[in-house]
Amino acid sequence: MERRPCTNQEECRLAKLPRGCFEDVHHEVFPRRNYTGKLEKEYRELDINKVLGCRALHDEFHATHEPPPKPPGNVMRAAVNAARVRAMIDANEV
Questions:
Q1: What is the pTM for the complete model shown?
Q2: Which of 91, 84, 89 is nearest to 46 (CA)?
Q3: Which one in 30, 32, 78, 93 has a CA-CA gap of 20 to 30 Å to 66?
Q4: Residues 16-26: tens digit of each pLDDT
Q5: How many CB atoms lie within 10 A of CB 55?
């Protein structure tokens, strides 16, 4: 999973709050309501589709960007299968 931490604490609107700035997971494929089937949910949760980053930047991104087009099922299936193969290879390299 990629990481995009808060780079400007002085201008971050969340840094001024008692809790302060924090990181959370942004899914590159959104909104969640568009990914309801088992394959779609698994695809959405792949590490390649997630970024850990500043919540303020996450909010800004969703306010300024349209959701990406949902990939066809065969594309999602190929990505999920590739991730499973990578996981098996990684497990055998231990």
A1: 0.82
A2: 84
A3: 78
A4: 777 778 889 99
A5: 18
